[in-house]
Amino acid sequence: RLLTKMYIFVYCIKKDKTPSSSRTLLVSYIGMKSQEIPIKAGVIKIAMKSDAEVLDEVVVTGYQKIDRKLFTGAASRVKMDDIKLGGESDISKFLEGQVAGVSIQTPSSTFGTAPKIRVRGASSIYGNQKPLWVVDGVVLEDAVEVSIDQLNSGDLSTLVSSGVAGLNSDDIESMQILKDVSATALYGARAMNGVIVVTTKKGRSGKINVNYSTNIAIRPRPTYDDYNILNSRDQMSINRELYEKGWTNVAKTQFASAHGPYGKMFDLIAKGELNWVDNTDQLNDFLRKYEIANTDWFDALFQTGVQQQHTVSFSGGGEKSTIYASIGYLHDNGWTISDKVNRYTALLKGTFNITKRFSITTQANLSYRDQKLSGVSDSKNDADGVNRWTGRIERNFDNNPFLYALTTSRGIRAYDESGNLEYFRRNYADYNIIDELSKNITGVTVRDMSFLADLKYDILPNLTVSGKISARYFQSETSRTIHENSNEANSYRAGTMPGDSEVVRDANDLLYEKPGSTTGIKYSILPEGGIYSVINDIMSNYYMTANINWNPRIGDDHMFTSLFGTEVRYVDRERNFSDGYGHFFDGGNVSKPSPNYIEYLSMNGKSYFGKEATHDRFAAFFLNYGYSYQGKYTFNGTVRYDGSNRLGKSRTARWLPTWNLSGKWAMKEENFLKDIEWLSTLNLRATYGLNASLGNASNSTLVARSQASSRPFNPDLSELEIYISQLENSDLTWEKQYELNLGADIGFFDNRLNLEFNYYRRRGFDLIGDYQSNGVGGQSVKIGNIADMNSHGFEVAINATPLIIDGFRWNINLNYSYHKNTIKNLITNDWVSKAVSSYGVPVENGPVRGIYSSRFAGLDNQGVPLFYNRNNEKVRYLNVQTDDFSDFVYSGNLEPTTDAGMQHTFSYKGITLSALFTGQFGHKKRVMQNFSYQYNDSQALTSHLKNRWRVAGDENVTNIPAIQDADMMNKNNATDIRTAYQLYGMSDLWLANASFIRLKNLSINYSLPQKWLKATKLNNINIGLQATNLALLWLADREKLGGEDPEFSWSGGTSMPISRQYTMTFSIGF
């Protein structure tokens, strides 16, 4: 058992005349708090107390450090040195597989994008489900608020969605995850999603120590071996079939927005550069070079990514003051040819003991990021970007290299025979992605700085007054630089330039026709120049707390803890944007906006610049009281009163009391168990209470905005008008949740085997979301409290040391958690089209993200997919533009219900070998596929098409639908056939079990023995190798998913999958 108290006896003899009061004795011991004792003659008895932080005997909640014996909640602590992943820049991703009850999914690996983190599953339906981050006792606000659905979108806002992207992992000491209502009670109405408390490193008394650490991570290119994509020969054979069935010809090529080899051939024929009739060999030769191209787009667009991280830190001080300082630099040359990241961090932290009773800790954090990546536009359609017809995220322009490599035909070449870039058509303009990536760039600049002053005054040995004052300024700039000769800029004028076809002009949706025009001629809003768009997000945050902490003891049996405090928070957010059309980047950096653009904006009531601001105000008062008798029976209670200006005007809506009651019974301390030597620990815990969250409430009052009025026929008469952006809801109130937690802590054999078990039940109510209003206020949708939700689950954490012998040590950490949500009283319905998509919808009596499917019934005698309707009849058509789900079947949960992690650590004489396995189970995933009744010859096609329907009777041996004949489509009911192919991709046939087990991390480290370093001035040298995301050891539906990662979201934009990574680490201290 850990040593928590010891006595040292010192016998002092006075040998000179120096007054003893002028001399002191400094006493220190490993794991104990250092003390400075005045010297006096005779025997001095010194009571040494444990340094709780060193011995891990405290729980850090952010407000207080609680002796673990008095802690009654459910919490887990992890040390950064134990979980750090080399080459990973976001500390939140380190928690995957490390803590029971914490689920982490990584929809994108792009720098700055946040993972999806849930503590004990979802506690909200539409609101923020992320845990509350607290860094050194200060709540870390989200500079840009991004919902859980938007994390999957690939939109530009996801690049600044991670609040901890600016933290250097080398500055982090530990993380404490607070899970139940007792552990999170002091955060009241902000803690329904759990709390993660980050503690940074601090200075230690003694000489100045300097430490340098670095890691270099390498990411290999992806390969087609992992994906079911046709090679160029098979692709061109299908292109031939498309030609034979009438989908590709000279006429259709003229108004096609995109084309590949066949389209290019017909375009040259139309221009007279190829002979259609007299030279068949010339045409065959033209197509043959694309048939053998077999372009490796991964090789063309990706490179071996190399990321470097360097940190230099200083630590030291004396009895009166300590200091910790660090500077860090991260450089990533990019996994693709278009992305690059530089990040700089700095931390300065000092603790000053002004007097024996009064101390101040000051801290300054600085972070700067400069990032470049491919140019993409945000998603369109609904707020979450999902097209109601297709169920997919769509955007006007997307140059995502990974998505391009998987969706572009390998028969298209990047370079021609002469080594020059070869162009095909996309968005009605010439396109080569390598050229486009050099001319269409997204830039991100982030500046984040904060200051903290932590004051503490000991009125009495057990009575302390403390307070924190924190200020933070965050500013990000997300820009899009679209050069004048880029494909995107040229797309805005395709069909209007000299020599362009009128067919293209009529088909190009990016052109506009002036209202009232009798000619029908379309115009370009960008007749010349490029585009420069900028979004600036600014956040100013002030945070203040004041606490009184009283911890009296009565004898050795009665221990009390009490805390009273208040918290005030100010958060001001501002967003400025501007869209500059007509900028010449390659022509002197001058701007020449077109009158057509100004006219277009005026006609549609839009603006090319704007500014939005929100002001978030929050106040709270709290009281915590605890009592423990002989360390056996511990009781704890907390009451907190929160208020926010985001909620309704009424006092009952805006202000909310939260509370909890908890207790712990240390059974091992009972006489009837004390003498059982093999039992080291036995604690039983129980908690019940109420906590809450703001959900997705941003404002409850009427929001009226001004805009330019739309005057399509008389733009000169446009004027400012006011429109209702959001209806008022004076009764909008907090999302709330009652939670019961029952837990046990058991230790065996001197705690060489430890088991922690928690079971919980939750009843959430007043959950917030949008619902259909009666439209009287001018809006059909209104925000309100629309649903309840019941949840339950359990967590098991096991720590074991099965072997210690001759310096060899084997340690096992195992965690397993299960969670289930059931939504009740949902008063809003989503459309079927979204429910069958890969993003899912809330389900009454089901989960937060459930997915539905059409029921596949085979193919008909024309190779068209069939489906069962509600009457079990085989049909081609089912209506997805409805909220009636009768024709569709519920297929499962898109979120994992079970998470597991297992880490083995072997150590021997300075060598440490570690292997981390993670797994998620119980969820589904819609398989990425692009089946259609016809295809574009620029598309990459799945290898499943080798088994497609071709002749009557094939419906008996295959379930891959046919490529339809264009003339047949014109003669038959084309709407039914088109819908059938859409339903095919949304069917239960293409839904996979996404459960998996992954070898997450494999590492080996070597620390040089101290006896080797004694002759030098070095304190330590450590070298190591790591392999991260090494392998998917088991994938439940590998045949369907192919090489598709079950965690990755195929949304394009800024999204990138996680990849294998190999890292070398090195650190030296002196």
Automatic annotation (TrEMBL):
Family annotation (PROSITE patterns):
TONB_DEPENDENT_REC_3
**UniProt xrefs under Pfam families:** Plug
- Plastid keyword on record: no
Q: Which residues form the TonB-dependent receptor plug domain?
A: 72-195
GO cellular component, alphabetical, reads: cell outer membrane
**Which controlled-vocabulary keywords does the entry list?**
Cell outer membrane, Membrane, Transmembrane, Transmembrane beta strand, Transport
Q: What is this protein called?
A: SusC/RagA family TonB-linked outer membrane protein
Which InterPro entries does the entry mention? Beta-barrel_TonB_sf, Plug_dom, Plug_dom_sf, TonB-dep_OMP_SusC/RagA, TonB-dep_OMP_SusC/RagA_CS, TonB-dep_rcpt-like
| UniProt topology in membrane | Multi-pass membrane protein
Q: Where are the bilayer-spanning segments?
A: none
Task: Tell me its family.
Answer: Belongs to the TonB-dependent receptor family.
Q: Does the keyword Membrane apply?
A: yes
From the Swiss-Prot or TrEMBL record, state where the protein is found.
Answer: Cell outer membrane
- Coiled coil regions in record: none
